[in-house]
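Why predict the complex rather than its parts? Because the way molecules touch one another can change local conformation, and only a joint prediction can capture that. The input here totals 1137 residues.
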Amino acid sequence: MSSVAKAPRRPRVTAEVMAGRQRDISVSEFFAKNRHLLGFDNPRKALLTTVKEAVDNALDACEEAGILPDVTVVIEDLQPDRAAGAKSSRYRVTVVDNGPGIVRKQVENIFGRLLYGSKFHRLKMSRGQQGIGISAAGMYGLITTGKPTIIHTRPDTRKPAHHIELAMNTKTNRAEVTVDVETQDFPPARLRDLHAATRRLAKVIEPEGHAALLDERDYPTGTSVSIELEGRYQRGRGSVDEFLELTAIANPHARISFVAPTKISGDDDSDVSYRGQPRLMPESAETAGGNGTFNPVQTLEHDGVTFFPRAVHELPRETQEIQPHPRGVELGTLLQMVKDHQASEGGSLYSFLQDRFCRVSPTTASKLCEAIGATSRTRLSDVDPARVEKLYRELQEVKLPPPPTDCLAPIGVRQMLAGLLKGVRAEFYAASSREPAVYRGRPFQIEAALAYGGELPGDEQARVIRFANRVPLQYQQSACSSFKAVIDTSWKNYNLQQPRGGLPVGPLVIMIHMASVWVPFTSESKEAIADYDEIRKEMKLALMECGRKLGTYLNKRQKMRRESERRDVFERYIGEISRAIESITGREANLIYDALLTQARKHTAIADAELDEDGKVVRKVTAPDDDGIIIIEQPRDDHPELPPVRQTRGEAAALKVAARAKDLESPVLISDSESAEPGKRTKPTKSPRTKASKPASAKAANRPTLDPDRKPASGRSTRKSRTDNAAPATKPRAKLRWVDGKLVRVDDEPGLF
Amino acid sequence: MAKKSVTGRSQATGPSAIKLKARDQQTLKKITALADDVATRAIKGKDPVVAIPTRSRSNTLWNKKRGILEMGSARQERQLFNLNQAKQFMQTMLHAGTIKELIDADKTSSLRGVFYKAKHTVAGTKENTFDRQEESDPILEDLEVTLGVLREELHIFAENRGTLVGNLTIIDKGDEINCRRMGSGGYGIPSIVEPEVIQFKKCDADFVLHVEKGTVWNRFNEDRFWEKHNCILTHGGGQPPRGVRRLLQRFNQELRLPIICLLDCDPWGHYIYSVIKQGSISLAFESTRLAIPEAKFLGIRAKDFHACDLSDAVKIDLSENDVKRAKEIAAYPWFEHHRGWQKEIAAMLQNGFKMEVEAMITKDISYVTETYVPQRMKAKDWLE
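Output of the joint prediction:
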């Protein structure tokens, strides 16, 4: 008590004085102080967020302009000789795209102002939403290094590019241009000439005839953004590498190249591969000198540069902008909308309802007008807030069709499979797309995909990769609705282990994508999807669809293993038996052999069918479900002494994707094998069946030959069956070989045989 | 004579020149029929199977009237398209082929020889058609029963085991053998002793004494027991092989000689007696040729420990396994209602130990040949 009494009296501050201190807070200033809200909380994340915002913008721009995205990300380490223990370093992030470019007068607005963009004011599916991203990154760079954002953009192929450098004034939320010149240097040649590796790669010619890195022909128009910032480059979870890897999976139509900094910062000699992260063709570096072939559909790495090739050649469906659905609008918003509309256009309540909302038909509009005691001719200005509130309640009651769904562009089953195929080395891939659904009056669509087996580590928890509007979500996994959906799903039903309340355990990658005009993130940094019941339910259903496919596959695989073992046993002995019979009876061994072989096949086939009838899981599979599965044949290793009959993983993958491609215009994935008879494989093959027949044919070639003379013949047939499998191959696959530091096209492959 | 045999041998080298005996031709016909059936079934799209009479306890019947074990009519199908039988099916066909070759060339082979003949890696794999002889022998037995022929007819013999000495003369493949003049080693009983191979020329013996193993046989031979008591002395090296059993059976059947067995006082000895007398389960199909229902069990008896006043040193404790085995033997249908045997086995179990024939040496080196056997023979103190 006494201490309070003794405390010195605080001087009083008058309202006047306080008023003097009160002033506008610029948005930029606010975010400069609260940068963690935007994902710049630490140097590592800052680097990621910068790359992420730039890449998102690049992809959005390309897609909106109808261009197949070609994006190159370059991170330069500007302090390569910093102290070994340094927690961060200075980097220059440059992202080049082949988008439409930016007209000169918009450059300042786009890169120099927070909350300036095309995406905030409309309900349209896109990666960015608020228009904070890239300018916030620029601002972060400016704060940490004092360096301006450098922009090269060429909106017109016939005109030179603009070279602009600008720094944001946080006080005024305006950009200050420091350099503004015209240049022919686009994409910036400097990037091709960074170091020995990029110089080399810029000379390597890809099968398409362009340079591997930043070819001018790939970037006739486009934009390049360079931001210098204090950051930290470290691989692993939540890294730039992971971001690009995941982006490539969810955007198989994009071609992404990534030049990583040559020196990795801090304590990062622990370059451990982590869960599900495919070591992107780690062997390519070593085998390149040998028989390393350039496989266009697989992510690969050369000289520290990672290439995520284009796996499908069609852009995502163009999305329609929609008006808000009445159910998704809150009272405050409704009042504001009324006010805005009144100010801008005026007109009647009747037309307002139809113009500003989707799914409000003239009939519904009149009904609503009536319900709040107005007529179809009532002016909007005559509607007072009380009636707006009444209108709001009516809107919740009235019968309305769900919002239109043409505003959504799901990735698509085939595209998800193609994306996973190039990024994850698994054995089984399944994907499914749900029908669009609605939460809070906003349409959304859930897609899920699985990759199982192959080179994925088997004894760990499944890896969940999450996407919202094709943007990977890398942080706050456990807060995310999709993560909860994975845990909620009972994976035990699909022959997988799952500890109580946990992720399934096994060689599994689970992909979930939510497409929506407005993805409900839990925070500004867009890291987790809010847990709406409707969303989680859809996610679960999508996962279950995939799970069923996987369960069926696992079941089948088990059975087929058993069956093929059986067949193996029989076939092994048939040769002996027929020869013995020949020696006893004089009847021709070959005839008996063939007869017995036919029977062996029949026997194992019969067993297959019986199992199909019995197995519950098998029965669940209905024909349409067969779509959306890819199975990679695993090399068999039980007869190591036999000539290899296996396709390379890439070949198999290409075939499988080809088998599913229905209407591609210029499918690169497929062109090697498909060009001759396009119709032949367009029907989606029933994969389990295809698979069943495959080991058999391989087996046929492998079967013990009756007399030694036939052995070479069997070798030939082995090869033949392989090319048969590879379908109508007319054009030989383009092979590239690493010779004297160059990739050289080789016409004839000195084969394994 | 010598010249003739030379030409005969040279003929044998050219397979085409061989004139097969009617019996061999029969066998060949059966083998061909078996293989032909498999081939025909295969080409007609039917499951290739071989029906093999079951050689198991369940398919072994005790013919009380004849006092022998007989094989029932149960047959088992051996299928190629059954995972558990596929390999055996293949092995059966391989052996059928081998046997045909043997017959064609008019040669015989040992069980082990046949095993090696058919053993090779399955084409295109690392797997052997046969890994061990233990796999091969039962397949040959399968073929015997399936074709309904004897092993000799398949031109297969087992390793010689068992020795004979005694008051008789035999002819073995044309060679006259005086079994009285066999020195210390005796005449090795061949695996095939069918009348085509061995004929009895002259026999003065009154009975056959069959002892369990060579050591005991040596004792008797050294003491010229067979001379003094005018008998034939045999041993089978433990469980007597088919050749020995068949020969004993022929002595019994053709020469009307009683067969007296001197075996150890343990379940193994009892079992040997049981096999000589009734036949075995695995060879039940041959019982008519092998079993000697009249065979007699002279000793060693459980009572002998006291009767002969043996020392404690001869006792060998019955193991748990022995007790189990003894009870099994006691439950055999041919012992089950035999009061003498029930008492004998019960006495042995009561003793809690077993005794070998050699135990008699503790009394005197020749006690068994000079006292024990003659006394018991005279008293007709044996079990039947």
